Amino acid sequence: MTEEWASLKEWINILAHHIDTGDFELSKDDILTILDLARDASHQVERAASPLTLFLVGVAVGRGGSLGKVAAQTTALVLSLDDRTTEAAEVAEDDPDDETDADIQ
């Protein structure tokens, strides 16, 4: 993973320079936190939720929240939504009159 890590750090530095983040740097712990959150949002909600979730986390951090706290709150929410979604799906399977399978328009 050393080569992968070096490539990732290089990309982060290039991106930070091009979008003018100033002297802001991501620590290894920050990067791992963000990657874990991306994985959780992608797997527990849906794939498209990952970039949108990370964008909103970035907005919250930009407004003064700590990455650790915002990420922990978001992860807890992602995991709780998955539990509720699973429970709702199980109930829907038991209800033959449920019409929630219709496509969202």
Features:
4 helices, mainly alpha, 105 residues, single chain, globular
Account of the 3D structure:
With 105 residues, the protein is an all-alpha fold. The chain has a domain at 24-88. It has 4 helices and no strands. It has helices at 2-18, 28-44, 49-62, 67-94. Helix 2 crosses helix 3 (49-62). The radius of gyration is 18 Å and the shape is globular. The model is unreliable at 100-105 (pLDDT under 50).
* Mean of residue pLDDT values: 84
Assembly context of the chains: single chain
Shape: globular
Radius of gyration: 18 Å
Structural class: mainly alpha
SSE string, helices as H and strands as E: HHHH
The strand count comes to 0
State the helicity in percent bands. over 70%
Q: In short, what is this structure?
A:
The chain has 105 residues and is an all-alpha fold. It is built from 4 helices and no strands.
